[in-house]
Amino acid sequence: MKSAVLVFPGINRERDMARTLKLVSGVEPAMVWHADTQLPAGTDLVVVPGGFSYGDYLRCGAIAARAPIMDAVRAHAAKGGLVLGVCNGFQILCESGLLPGVLMRNSKLKFICHDVHLRVERSDTPFTRGYNAGQVIRVPVAHGEGNYVADEDTIKAIESEGRVIFRYCSADGTLGDPYNVNGAINAIAGIVNERGNVAGMMPHPENHVESIIGSTDGRGLFAGLVQQFGKAA
Ligand SMILES: NC(=O)CC[C@H](N)C(=O)O
Q: Ligand 1 center to residue 114 CA distance, Å?
Protein backbone atom coordinates (compact mmCIF):
# COMPACT_ATOMS: atom_id res chain seq x y z
CA MET A 1 0.00 0.00 0.00
CA LYS A 2 1.42 3.33 -1.09
CA SER A 3 0.39 6.09 1.27
CA ALA A 4 1.00 9.82 1.46
CA VAL A 5 0.87 11.81 4.71
CA LEU A 6 0.14 15.53 4.36
CA VAL A 7 2.27 17.97 6.37
CA PHE A 8 1.00 21.44 7.30
CA PRO A 9 2.74 24.03 9.49
CA GLY A 10 1.67 23.25 13.07
CA ILE A 11 0.82 19.61 12.45
CA ASN A 12 2.43 17.41 15.12
CA ARG A 13 1.12 13.88 14.58
CA GLU A 14 2.55 13.23 11.15
CA ARG A 15 5.51 11.19 12.46
CA ASP A 16 3.23 8.98 14.58
CA MET A 17 1.08 8.37 11.52
CA ALA A 18 4.06 7.69 9.25
CA ARG A 19 5.56 5.29 11.79
CA THR A 20 2.29 3.34 12.05
CA LEU A 21 1.84 3.18 8.28
CA LYS A 22 5.39 1.82 7.91
CA LEU A 23 4.89 -0.63 10.77
CA VAL A 24 1.65 -2.08 9.44
CA SER A 25 2.15 -1.83 5.66
CA GLY A 26 5.91 -2.34 5.51
CA VAL A 27 6.18 0.68 3.20
CA GLU A 28 7.45 4.13 4.21
CA PRO A 29 4.78 6.71 3.33
CA ALA A 30 5.60 9.83 1.30
CA MET A 31 5.51 13.01 3.38
CA VAL A 32 3.79 15.67 1.26
CA TRP A 33 4.20 19.36 2.07
CA HIS A 34 1.06 21.53 2.10
CA ALA A 35 2.43 23.89 -0.58
CA ASP A 36 2.94 21.04 -3.06
CA THR A 37 0.33 20.66 -5.75
CA GLN A 38 0.70 16.97 -6.59
CA LEU A 39 0.56 13.66 -4.79
CA PRO A 40 3.20 11.04 -5.65
CA ALA A 41 2.10 8.90 -8.64
CA GLY A 42 0.36 5.68 -7.60
CA THR A 43 -0.75 6.90 -4.15
CA ASP A 44 -3.39 4.50 -2.78
CA LEU A 45 -4.17 6.28 0.46
CA VAL A 46 -3.87 9.94 1.50
CA VAL A 47 -3.73 10.53 5.24
CA VAL A 48 -4.42 13.94 6.74
CA PRO A 49 -2.89 13.65 10.21
CA GLY A 50 -3.62 15.36 13.52
CA GLY A 51 -2.11 18.38 15.17
CA PHE A 52 -2.54 22.12 15.20
CA SER A 53 -2.31 23.24 11.60
CA TYR A 54 -1.78 27.00 11.44
CA GLY A 55 -2.08 27.13 15.22
CA ASP A 56 -5.83 26.37 15.03
CA TYR A 57 -6.38 30.01 13.96
CA LEU A 58 -9.91 30.94 12.77
CA ARG A 59 -11.24 27.41 13.38
CA CYS A 60 -9.31 24.15 13.58
CA GLY A 61 -8.52 23.08 10.01
CA ALA A 62 -10.02 26.15 8.32
CA ILE A 63 -6.75 27.48 6.88
CA ALA A 64 -5.26 24.08 6.02
CA ALA A 65 -8.41 23.26 4.04
CA ARG A 66 -7.37 26.03 1.61
CA ALA A 67 -3.76 24.86 1.16
CA PRO A 68 -2.54 24.17 -2.42
CA ILE A 69 -2.24 20.39 -1.87
CA MET A 70 -5.95 20.09 -1.11
CA ASP A 71 -6.90 20.37 -4.80
CA ALA A 72 -4.84 17.24 -5.45
CA VAL A 73 -6.54 15.52 -2.50
CA ARG A 74 -9.94 16.47 -3.93
CA ALA A 75 -8.93 15.06 -7.33
CA HIS A 76 -7.67 11.84 -5.69
CA ALA A 77 -11.00 11.44 -3.85
CA ALA A 78 -12.98 12.22 -7.01
CA LYS A 79 -11.22 9.30 -8.73
CA GLY A 80 -12.30 7.02 -5.88
CA GLY A 81 -8.93 7.14 -4.09
CA LEU A 82 -8.95 6.63 -0.33
CA VAL A 83 -8.53 9.56 2.07
CA LEU A 84 -8.35 9.26 5.87
CA GLY A 85 -8.39 12.28 8.19
CA VAL A 86 -7.57 11.84 11.87
CA CYS A 87 -8.37 14.54 14.43
CA ASN A 88 -7.09 17.79 12.87
CA GLY A 89 -7.23 15.80 9.63
CA PHE A 90 -10.95 15.16 10.16
CA GLN A 91 -11.43 18.87 10.85
CA ILE A 92 -9.52 19.72 7.64
CA LEU A 93 -11.64 17.30 5.55
CA CYS A 94 -14.85 18.85 6.92
CA GLU A 95 -13.57 22.39 6.35
CA SER A 96 -12.58 21.49 2.78
CA GLY A 97 -16.01 20.05 1.98
CA LEU A 98 -14.73 16.51 1.46
CA LEU A 99 -16.83 15.44 4.43
CA PRO A 100 -20.08 16.99 5.67
CA GLY A 101 -20.49 18.81 8.98
CA VAL A 102 -18.06 20.59 11.25
CA LEU A 103 -16.16 20.01 14.49
CA MET A 104 -17.16 22.49 17.20
CA ARG A 105 -15.59 23.17 20.63
CA ASN A 106 -15.96 20.23 22.99
CA SER A 107 -19.21 20.61 24.94
CA LYS A 108 -17.32 21.15 28.22
CA LEU A 109 -15.05 23.73 26.53
CA LYS A 110 -11.91 21.89 27.67
CA PHE A 111 -9.14 20.17 25.73
CA ILE A 112 -9.43 16.44 26.40
CA CYS A 113 -6.59 13.93 26.19
CA HIS A 114 -7.25 10.36 27.34
CA ASP A 115 -8.32 6.95 26.07
CA VAL A 116 -11.92 6.47 24.94
CA HIS A 117 -13.95 3.48 23.81
CA LEU A 118 -15.40 3.39 20.32
CA ARG A 119 -18.04 1.11 18.91
CA VAL A 120 -17.26 0.06 15.36
CA GLU A 121 -20.59 0.57 13.59
CA ARG A 122 -19.78 -1.29 10.40
CA SER A 123 -17.02 -3.47 9.08
CA ASP A 124 -17.82 -3.22 5.36
CA THR A 125 -15.81 -0.08 4.62
CA PRO A 126 -12.16 0.04 3.54
CA PHE A 127 -11.39 1.76 6.86
CA THR A 128 -13.11 -0.71 9.19
CA ARG A 129 -12.77 -4.08 7.47
CA GLY A 130 -10.11 -5.02 10.04
CA TYR A 131 -12.82 -5.00 12.74
CA ASN A 132 -16.17 -6.68 13.37
CA ALA A 133 -19.34 -4.59 13.45
CA GLY A 134 -20.22 -3.96 17.10
CA GLN A 135 -16.63 -4.46 18.26
CA VAL A 136 -15.46 -2.05 20.97
CA ILE A 137 -11.95 -0.62 20.68
CA ARG A 138 -9.92 1.62 22.99
CA VAL A 139 -7.94 4.48 21.43
CA PRO A 140 -6.88 7.94 22.64
CA VAL A 141 -8.43 11.33 21.90
CA ALA A 142 -6.52 14.63 22.13
CA HIS A 143 -8.60 17.58 21.00
CA GLY A 144 -10.32 20.81 21.90
CA GLU A 145 -12.76 20.86 18.96
CA GLY A 146 -14.13 17.38 18.44
CA ASN A 147 -17.82 17.96 18.87
CA TYR A 148 -19.26 16.76 15.55
CA VAL A 149 -22.20 18.85 14.37
CA ALA A 150 -24.18 18.97 11.12
CA ASP A 151 -27.63 20.20 10.15
CA GLU A 152 -30.61 17.94 10.72
CA ASP A 153 -30.92 16.76 7.10
CA THR A 154 -27.24 15.90 6.90
CA ILE A 155 -27.39 13.88 10.13
CA LYS A 156 -30.50 12.09 8.84
CA ALA A 157 -28.70 11.23 5.61
CA ILE A 158 -25.51 10.10 7.38
CA GLU A 159 -27.48 7.88 9.75
CA SER A 160 -29.90 6.42 7.21
CA GLU A 161 -27.07 5.62 4.81
CA GLY A 162 -25.06 3.97 7.59
CA ARG A 163 -22.14 6.37 7.23
CA VAL A 164 -21.20 6.54 10.90
CA ILE A 165 -18.23 4.22 11.33
CA PHE A 166 -17.34 4.90 15.00
CA ARG A 167 -19.30 6.14 18.04
CA TYR A 168 -18.09 6.97 21.54
CA CYS A 169 -19.34 4.34 23.99
CA SER A 170 -18.59 2.57 27.28
CA ALA A 171 -16.15 -0.35 27.57
CA ASP A 172 -19.04 -2.74 26.91
CA GLY A 173 -20.38 -0.80 23.93
CA THR A 174 -23.20 1.09 25.65
CA LEU A 175 -24.01 4.54 24.27
CA GLY A 176 -24.82 7.42 26.61
CA ASP A 177 -23.93 10.95 27.64
CA PRO A 178 -21.18 9.97 30.11
CA TYR A 179 -19.23 8.29 27.28
CA ASN A 180 -19.84 10.96 24.65
CA VAL A 181 -16.63 12.79 25.58
CA ASN A 182 -17.08 15.91 23.46
CA GLY A 183 -20.88 16.14 23.06
CA ALA A 184 -20.95 15.09 19.39
CA ILE A 185 -24.39 14.59 17.82
CA ASN A 186 -25.37 10.91 18.20
CA ALA A 187 -21.94 10.30 19.77
CA ILE A 188 -20.40 10.38 16.29
CA ALA A 189 -16.63 9.82 16.41
CA GLY A 190 -16.05 8.97 12.74
CA ILE A 191 -17.88 9.04 9.42
CA VAL A 192 -17.42 8.24 5.75
CA ASN A 193 -18.58 10.23 2.72
CA GLU A 194 -21.40 9.04 0.44
CA ARG A 195 -19.06 7.10 -1.80
CA GLY A 196 -17.34 5.49 1.18
CA ASN A 197 -13.79 6.41 0.11
CA VAL A 198 -13.20 9.40 2.40
CA ALA A 199 -13.22 8.89 6.17
CA GLY A 200 -12.69 11.19 9.13
CA MET A 201 -12.43 10.43 12.84
CA MET A 202 -11.43 12.38 15.95
CA PRO A 203 -9.66 9.61 17.95
CA HIS A 204 -6.13 8.50 17.11
CA PRO A 205 -5.90 4.84 16.01
CA GLU A 206 -2.26 5.39 14.99
CA ASN A 207 -1.27 5.74 18.64
CA HIS A 208 -2.50 2.32 19.75
CA VAL A 209 -0.76 -0.14 17.48
CA GLU A 210 1.85 -1.72 19.75
CA SER A 211 1.33 -3.71 22.94
CA ILE A 212 4.34 -2.02 24.54
CA ILE A 213 2.26 1.14 24.90
CA GLY A 214 -0.78 -0.69 26.25
CA SER A 215 -3.12 -1.37 23.33
CA THR A 216 -3.12 -2.55 19.75
CA ASP A 217 -6.77 -1.68 19.14
CA GLY A 218 -5.98 0.94 16.50
CA ARG A 219 -4.08 -1.50 14.35
CA GLY A 220 -7.18 -3.03 12.74
CA LEU A 221 -7.88 0.16 10.82
CA PHE A 222 -4.46 0.11 9.12
CA ALA A 223 -4.37 -3.67 8.78
CA GLY A 224 -7.73 -3.52 6.99
CA LEU A 225 -6.42 -0.93 4.55
CA VAL A 226 -3.30 -2.97 3.89
CA GLN A 227 -5.46 -6.05 3.20
CA GLN A 228 -7.02 -4.11 0.36
CA PHE A 229 -3.79 -3.04 -1.32
CA GLY A 230 -1.30 -5.64 -0.20
CA LYS A 231 1.79 -5.18 1.88
CA ALA A 232 4.33 -4.19 -0.77
CA ALA A 233 4.21 -0.88 -2.65
N1 LIG B 1 -4.73 16.15 18.08
C2 LIG B 1 -5.29 16.94 17.20
O3 LIG B 1 -5.28 16.71 16.00
C4 LIG B 1 -5.93 18.21 17.75
C5 LIG B 1 -6.84 18.87 16.77
C6 LIG B 1 -7.15 20.32 17.10
N7 LIG B 1 -5.95 21.09 17.21
C8 LIG B 1 -8.00 20.40 18.34
O9 LIG B 1 -7.51 20.72 19.39
O10 LIG B 1 -9.16 20.12 18.29
A: 13
